Amino acid sequence: MTAFDAVLFDCDGVLVDSESITNRVLCTMLNESGWAISQEQCTRDFIGKTVRSQAAVIEAHTGKPLTDAWMAEFYERRNAALRAELVAIDGAQQAVMQIHALCNGRIACASGADRAKVEMQLAKVGMAPYFEGHVYSGHEMPRSKPFPDVYLAAAKALKADPAKCLVIEDTMTGVQAGVAAGATVWGYFPADQGHASAEQLLEAGAACVFGDMGDLPAMFEAVRRSAASASTGDDDEHDLR
User: Which residues make Cβ contacts (< 8 Å) with residue 81, sequence separation at least 6?
Assistant: First the structure.
């Protein structure tokens, strides 16, 4: 087993509990625009995707163009709700702190969301210092998730081989992006998550799933010990020859 040189975290649903807030605002605005969509369907249809990437779907249901003004209002209302309500995923802050130490700072946040949102969220929950200079947005890439661009950019900036990077994701779209980048992906699947099953994350390419962010450092360290043990065994075998 190969030890990981860097860890690349998704943001929404992995580090911060933002997805229900964002989707509530989106659902409200879609209904106001004429699409009678339920909260459940909105979450199912939009989780892990950018709103703009679904412009054709939105326009088909509302009969109206998805304008810059509509998007600006969405961002404003979304950000106001996040500032008021956002909290960190249970165990995420401690996990990030420990992984940052174990990786000698080689961690990044690689999100499909816009940079302003990601940086605001990390600052609000106290994680910004651990990702300083290493926040990457799919909005700034040629392609966003499920394409690998944002993860490849993060790995390159950290001077890490993508094949030796660990990606932490909670959506099928994100898992697919990490796998396409050539990284190992662990799927985060808390018991109360409703937008993707553990089986779906595994089918998308996750190497494993786990349900408690607080378990991540121990899992990471176990891989490191296993890799070190395997390396020592190889060396001993070579000496015997």
Answer: 21, 22, 24, 25
The architecture in CATH of the region 6-17+87-231 reads 3-Layer(aba) Sandwich (3.40)
* Eight-class DSSP state of 177: H
Distance CA 195, CA 89 (A): 16
Which residues in the chain are classed under CATH 3.40.50.1000?
6-17+87-231
Q: Which CATH number fits domain 18-85: 3.30.70, 1.10.150, 1.10.1400, 3.20.20?
A: 1.10.150
pTM as predicted? 0.88
How would you write the pLDDT of the chain (241 residues) with one tens digit per residue? 468 999 999 999 999 999 899 999 999 999 999 999 999 999 889 987 889 989 999 999 999 999 999 999 999 999 999 999 999 999 999 999 999 999 999 999 999 999 999 999 999 999 999 999 999 999 999 999 999 999 999 999 999 999 999 999 999 999 999 999 999 999 999 877 656 789 999 999 999 999 999 999 999 999 988 888 877 665 443 333 2
- CA dihedral in degrees (224, 201, 116, 97; nearest 10)? -30
* Interior angle at CA 112, CA 111 and CA 117, nearest 5: 70
Q: What size, in residues, is the chain?
A: 241
Per DSSP (E only), the strands in the chain are 6-9, 107-111, 135-137, 165-169, 184-188, 208-210
Rg (CA), the chain: 19
